[in-house]
């Protein structure tokens, strides 16, 4: 990537401090290098991670910060070395915009685990400039981290797939859980969780939604097609489901106990953690060894607690094709940029079905 020669500006909505409140912000957009794609942003999904970063929940935020890592837009310029994209293509950008290219994860096309990965925003690019996200008019991204949106897929439907979608698809693929006939649980029915139900059902699984209340029962069973719904505090129902699931995808982004859900897993079952939680999670070691208290006489039930982090670029491409093939889409609420602060407040209260998408193209970004 060459050094800046001609300064060009763009405008986005940025947080200036841990209040997390966004407002118009003009900043320099880097030049289009040989391997870069210049994208006019059409829309961008809102992820729970945007809340964490804008409010400095993880203690790593740098301001001003333009959030947004579920970006869909139109290619308006390509560098001389770009071969995958042409002007006019509809493309997407997810959570990452850079990696080292030489470490073990990178050599295995798992750039999301690269120790030198570069985030789409709240990071520093190789030219020393801060990265800014998709709540803006434009972005410039290396072609490795850009994907084509399948023809015929609505842009606002594609946006949540670039984070929420691939975050669920990746562990299902990696852990060999794409085969039909499995029984799975989806813990938490938000942006990621509702895609988990859709993917698992499309793969031929029996799916149980595990939630904290009955609020989403009808939606889970009727709108998303889940096979069962259980409230985690309903001990009788939880006991009925003990030792019945091959996996549970845990999307809950706040601190919670793990033992109740470990009891639902079969031998070699997997509890896959996805929520970004800034407090230690705890469990009793017998829960992953024999499944219950050592005092009780139980069969040995080897179990796994593991994590999964977004997905690779290859998995993102596979996931988009899977969605096209199966006709999958996310359930969204489209908003304008002047509503984004309200949307973030509602997201914090879990008041969204199931993903906000900002209509950037149709919004007035200037003050």
TrEMBL record:
Keywords: Metal-binding, Oxidoreductase, Zinc
Domain of life of the organism encoding this protein: Eukaryota
Names of the cofactor(s): Zn(2+)
SUPFAM superfamilies linked to this entry: GroES-like, NAD(P)-binding Rossmann-fold domains
CDD domains xref list: CAD1
PROSITE patterns reported in the protein's UniProt record: ADH_ZINC (PS00059)
Name of one Pfam family that matches: ADH_N
PANTHER family xref list: ALDEHYDE REDUCTASE
Quaternary data: Homodimer.
Full protein name: Enoyl reductase (ER) domain-containing protein
Organism: Brassica napus (Rape)
